[in-house]
């Protein structure tokens, strides 16, 4: 993976048809997505359960782009290796999942892949200052984690701008996750985000059999984000 700040659209398969993840991944990629975002939830750190490393391993052969794994689990350390073995290109963990985020990031990096840290809406960016020399991605949650289809929390746009200033010219992606639509994409892009996760914004209205809807949704979000700079 090379680094750049171009806008990347990362559909969250949380909003895909759970009966056919492999085909869904192929459909969003052939319709032009940049990364595939995989939301892992444990029913403990967040009030919802999705899937684990075996599912990630099963879909990996269906993903040609980047498998971006967002772990909403606690404790997390003992599971990292299994997600790396499953083929994750990036593993993102929550700073709130504790207790030793620096150790967790060290563990991800030691396994040779990219590491991300996610912040819940109530967590200030000052909490990650000590991690900026080790992470490859910061994920700003623009909803409280746990469910797709929630409303974008607009106060997070200012947080993204502050984060962008804090990151400066370091090669760290700013990812936003939650409530991204053609309406909210310009706000986060202008603030400095380059990876836009969108679940319902991409999958709603489409299906594997009707995947051109995914393509239209991806294009609308991307064009709205890029349009923020014109
Ligand atoms: C929330 C997940 C998100 C979510 C985004 O906990 O991390 O990735 O699926 O879904 P939308 O785009 O529908 O808000
Ligand atoms: Zn996510």
What is the compact description of this entry?
This protein is an alpha/beta fold and 230 residues long. It has helices at 21-30, 53-59, 77-85, 101-110, 156-167, 185-191, 200-203, 212-227; strands spanning 8-11, 35-41, 66-72, 90-94, 114-119, 137-141, 173-177, 195-198. The mean pLDDT is 97.
Q: What's the SSE pattern?
A: EHEHEHEHEEHEHEHH
Gyration radius, rounded? 16 Å
Number of strands: 8
Instruction: Return the average pLDDT rounded to an integer.
Output: 97
What coarse outline follows from CA principal-axis ratios? globular
What's the helical proportion of residues?
A: 25-40%
Count of individual helical segments? 8
Low-confidence stretches: none
Question: What distance separates the N and C termini?
Answer: 28 Å
Bound molecules: D-xylitol-5-phosphate, zinc ion
* Strand coverage percent: 15-25%
Structural class from helices and strands?
alpha/beta
User: Largest beta sheet: what is the strand line-up?
Assistant: 1-8-7-6-5-4-3-2
Explain what this protein looks like in three dimensions.
- With 230 residues, the chain is of the alpha/beta class.
- It is built from eight helices and eight strands, in the order βαβαβαβαββαβαβαα.
- The radius of gyration is 16 Å and the shape is globular.
- The two termini are 28 Å apart.
């Amino acid at each position: 993976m090379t680094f750049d700040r171009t806008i990347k659209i990362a559909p969250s398969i949380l909003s895909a048809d759970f009966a056919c993840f492999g085909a869904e991944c192929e459909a969003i990629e052939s319709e032009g997505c940049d990364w595939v975002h995989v939301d892992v939830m444990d029913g403990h750190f967040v009030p919802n359960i999705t899937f684990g490393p075996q599912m990630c391993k099963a879909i990996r052969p269906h993903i040609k782009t980047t498998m971006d794994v967002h772990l909403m689990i606690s404790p997390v350390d003992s599971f990292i290796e299994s997600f790396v073995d499953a083929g994750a290109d990036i593993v993102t963990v929550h700073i709130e999942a504790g207790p030793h985020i620096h150790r967790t990031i060290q563990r991800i990096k030691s396994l040779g892949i990219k590491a991300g840290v996610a912040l819940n809406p109530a967590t200030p960016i000052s909490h990650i200052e000590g991690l900026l020399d080790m992470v490859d991605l910061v994920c700003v949650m623009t909803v409280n984690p746990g469910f797709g289809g929630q409303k974008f929390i607009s106060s997070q746009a200012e947080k993204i701008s502050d984060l962008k200033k804090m990151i400066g010219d370091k090669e760290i992606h700013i990812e936003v996750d939650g409530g991204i639509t053609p309406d909210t994409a310009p706000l986060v892009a202008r603030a400095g985000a380059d990876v836009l996760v969108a679940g319902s914004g991409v999958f709603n209205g489409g299906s594997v059999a009707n995947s051109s809807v995914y393509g239209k949704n991806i294009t609308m979000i991307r064009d709205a984000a890029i349009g923020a700079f014109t």
